[in-house]
Design goal:
By secondary structure, the chain is of the alpha/beta class. It has 5 domains: 3-30 and 106-197 and 289-316, no CATH class; 40-98 and 208-269, no CATH class; 322-471, Flavodoxin domain (Rossmann fold), CATH 3.40.50.360; 487-592, Translation factors (Elongation Factor Tu (Ef-tu), domain 3, Beta Barrel); 596-734, Rossmann fold (3-Layer(aba) Sandwich). It has 22 helices and 24 strands. Strand 11 (380-386), helix 11 (400-406) and strand 12 (414-420) form a beta-alpha-beta unit. The longest helix is centred in the N-terminal third of the chain and has 31 residues, at 161-191. Bound molecules: flavin mononucleotide. The site of flavin mononucleotide has 24 residues, from helix 10 and strand 12. The chain crosses the membrane at residues 123-144, 165-185, 289-315.
Length: 735
Amino acid sequence: MTWKAIHRWLGLTVGSLAVVLGVTGAVLAIDPVQQAWQAPAAPGDLPVATLVDRVLRTVPDAEEIRHLPSGAIVVFSFVGDQPQASYVDPADGRVLGAWQASALPRWVKNLHRSLLLGDAGRWGAAGIALAMGLVCASALVLLLRRMGGWRRLTARVRGSLAQRLHVVTGRVVLVVLSLTSLTALTMSASTLGWVALDAGTEPDALSVVTGQPALPAAQLATLQGMAVRDLRKLNVPGTTDPEDTWTVATAQGQGWIDRYSGQLLAWQQATVAQRVYDLAVVLHTGESAWPWAVVLGLVGASVLLFWLSGVVIWWQARRQAPKITGNSPLAQADVLIYVASEGGSTWGFAQTLQDALRPLGLRVHTSALENFQTTAATRQVFVLAATYGEGQAPAHASHALARIAKLKAGAVPVTVLGFGDRQFPAFCGFAKVLDQTLRARGWPSLLPLECIHQQSSQQFARWGLALAQALGKPLVLEHVPRVPSTTTLTLIERRDYNGGAGPATAILRFAWPAQRLGERLRGQGLARFAAGDLVGILPPGSAVPRYYSLASGQQDGFLEICVRQMAGGLCSTHLLGLKLGDSVTAFIRANPGFALPRTRRPVLLIGAGTGVAPLAGFIRRNDRHRPMHLYFGGRDPARDFYFGPDIQRWLAQGRLTTLHTAFSRVPDGGGYVQDALRRDAEQLREQVARGAIVRVCGGRAMAQGVTEALDAVLAPLQLSVAQLKASERYAEDIF
Ligand SMILES: Cc1cc2nc3c(=O)[nH]c(=O)nc-3n(C[C@H](O)[C@H](O)[C@H](O)COP(=O)(O)O)c2cc1C
């Protein structure tokens, strides 16, 4: 069973009962807070003897004095045959008012401890605590996998509102929740009798009657040397039994004191089990520190949020679960397709490949990568593998590589197709390792490894052409990706750039659509977005989205993109043909690797042409004026200096620190953007030495040119673009 399965099934089933414990725990956390405000706490260094002396002056028939975890002092006595419990002021022993163990109804406690089911319920509650401990442990493993290790643990979380709620709250409360489960188990261990807390028998201690009068409390040496901070409770010797003793319970143990001599007659040290139990009670209830009780209460209530968001996530995943149609049985299949996918999109590509191969008369079987094997009938194997975290396999396939590495190589070609995102330092890292392993083991392949960037249908189609050629069969891979739920966006502003001899371009601004909370919870409607994320647009008559980098974030209140006319481009033609008030069908795709981290480090923004769009978005939101330096490359400032007036304004406002332009088609324009970088080598080295973060956006050739220029610039620092990428300081958005 995988961690994901453990987390999902325990969370869904036992999680519903944990909600009861969490919510009742949150209610119970009110008690310590209330107690803390009801009476003053005794000073910790006050000698117990002094306290007792003060109390007995005002309540002479006191039987027991308790030092509550809140620090308050309560005295128990009898008025007639009526037991009484009152708060007293430790400063002078004055009675402050009646004390009640709890203001909450008893059933809340019983529900929390035993689900109102008596002893059987206590076992149940212990089982739930154990299950919740497992849910927390699996949550940590999944969190680390999802975020890509400890270092990225605090990185921005993407996904539907439910996913973000689940993960973000999880990051905050996971430690406290784990602690609560552990302490609940520790407490259960004693209530269920798994461990004995005390020594079992009490010593037979009696006061030695000497004929002397009993000593007043203030003169008892043992109590004089004892501080109130250690005191739990003190029993006053009874008036009717001359051999009765003072009994004092502290955090360290229990003692019996002779009422005539003040000698300590016996001392029973607290057992280790008792001390562990005491600590567990404090941590689980917060009864000795009300701020901790507040934390526990909030964390208890958050269990409900977790469970609800978890159910929504499970339901969303179920809807998106891969369903491969037309699968032939494994033993008869000519072609086997193995898939490693976390988010599910790679399964869609596998289905497209399967659907294209079947009309060629091939029987195809598609399965998850962990099932990798070949049979006597197999003629071709394709592995479609996504990468996660720092070059890791999707969770379900985490052991597949080790298994494949142990298999004896067959003669059947195994071709790997990677799915990834160039913004991650380990682009298609898992597919690459998998491919290397297969080759090292001696498996042949039909085609060399190809890595698909950002689920590009176009790149997949090109790989399909190569495959058709290698197979010698007519094969077309037309992948229609499953797109998230879409939203209609209305155009509210456009700025046109006449390309002259070149293509026309426009900056298009769409209104941000209002959406209901229910939609956001289900991940419907327009997802949250920031500059640098992508908007997928579905042009009329096509189910294949085209992606554009966003030049604005949600905080800006609108959605802006920069679109260049592509020759014969269905989507760019559609977009450039829009009039104000027209609308498009769109959805957001996160681009987490490109987002700017929240630091004060300098930022180098390098973009050419429409690639300046996400960089403009970063500058627009630079409210804190962190140092940002823009290198912009265009052809002619009169035609394609996109966002030009905005950039000048941001420069004047201090949102942009320096601007460096390079225009390749005008005399003395400065050439290409990489030329500008070379010219500024000294300043760039200085910025990088100060920890600068680099973001590059533009065409592939430009990105390559920038890499070469920066490699040369950084060489004297013994640094390279690859090293900056590996330390997540350099990211590209390439189109
Ligand atoms: C949290 C997260 C981490 C990722 N890490 C990497 C990575 O390290 N390398 C990479 O090439 N792609 C990475 N990607 C991109 C995915 O591999 C890519 O989007 C892939 O197409 C997803 O396929 P799937 O939906 O089948 O899981 C990551 C995506 C996410 C959401």
